[in-house]
């Protein structure tokens, strides 16, 4: 028995350690149809610039307009050359013309993007975005439940900071300034299988601050936000 125990201990001691859990990186460049009607690659259009990115839709009755206004105010508090990006999660209604008219209500510096349903799904997965059509008798048009986070990227367009809906513009502006001086990312992301549930902007509920994709694929288990 003693021999077997010693042998087992020796095998355990030299057994390879399990591979470390790989962090999940969100964000990155994409190619979608710009509000001008042209296909635009963010890697080329915003090369070397941080991006402030929000996913929403033009029919959004409350959270999208207020969040975009916060982004505009934040942009006025920083001298950093940051690109402001609005990606529609409602391609059926948000074409280039609709996006252009909508983004111009906030600032000429806000770039609207749309695309086919399949293309947008790929981008949403890349950015950890949840959205789902929501039918309601309270409105004549359908609404869309969706992630309500603002994403700040570095100059390589990887997410380094995430802001809850309702974050004060001065906090966003400060993070933009710090992102250009090599401040370590405050985002903590790990992978986990079969994460369920989501906190999203819902048609009949107050906007909730953050979201995790509700799909059954490998996704996020933790996401620390500012």
Brief summary of the model shown:
The protein has helices at residues 2-14, 42-45, 63-75, 96-103, 117-126, 169-179, and strands spanning 31-34, 39-41, 51-56, 83-88, 110-114, 131-134, 143-146, 150-153, 159-163, 189-192, 219-223. With 226 residues, it is α+β, with helices and mostly antiparallel strands.
Description:
- There is one protein chain.
- The protein has a single domain (20-223), classed as 3-Layer(aba) Sandwich (Glutaredoxin), CATH 3.40.30.10.
- It is built from 6 helices and 11 strands.
- The protein has helices at residues 2-14, 42-45, 63-75, 96-103, 117-126, 169-179; strands at residues 31-34, 39-41, 51-56, 83-88, 110-114, 131-134, 143-146, 150-153, 159-163, 189-192, 219-223.
- The radius of gyration is 21 Å and the shape is globular.
- The protein is α+β, with helices and mostly antiparallel strands.
- The strands form 3 sheets. It has a 7-stranded mixed beta sheet with strand order 2-1-5-4-3-8-9. The chain has a two-stranded antiparallel ribbon with strand order 6-7.
- The termini are far apart.
- 36% of the residues are buried.
């Amino acid at each position: 028995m003693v021999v077997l125990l010693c042998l087992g201990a020796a095998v355990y001691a030299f057994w390879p350690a399990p591979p470390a859990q790989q962090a999940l990186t969100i964000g990155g460049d994409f190619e979608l149809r710009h509000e001008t009607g042209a296909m635009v690659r963010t890697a080329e259009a915003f090369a070397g610039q941080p991006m402030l990115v929000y996913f929403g839709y033009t029919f959004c009755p409350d959270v999208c307009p207020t969040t975009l206004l916060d982004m505009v105010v934040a942009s006025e508090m920083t001298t950093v050359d940051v690109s402001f990006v609005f990606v529609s999660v409602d391609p059926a209604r948000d074409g280039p013309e609709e996006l252009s008219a909508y983004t111009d209500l906030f600032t000429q510096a806000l770039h609207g993007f749309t695309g086919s349903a399949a293309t947008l799904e790929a981008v949403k997965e890349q950015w950890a975005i949840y959205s789902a059509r929501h039918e309601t008798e309270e409105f004549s048009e359908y609404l869309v439940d969706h992630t309500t986070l603002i994403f700040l990227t570095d100059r390589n367009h990887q997410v380094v900071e995430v802001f809850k809906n309702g974050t004060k513009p001065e906090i966003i502006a400060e993070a933009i300034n710090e992102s250009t001086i090599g401040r370590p990312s405050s985002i903590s992301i790990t992978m986990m299988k079969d994460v369920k549930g989501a906190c999203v902007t819902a048609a009949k509920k107050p906007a909730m601050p953050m979201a995790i994709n509700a799909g059954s694929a490998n996704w996020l288990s933790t996401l620390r936000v500012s």
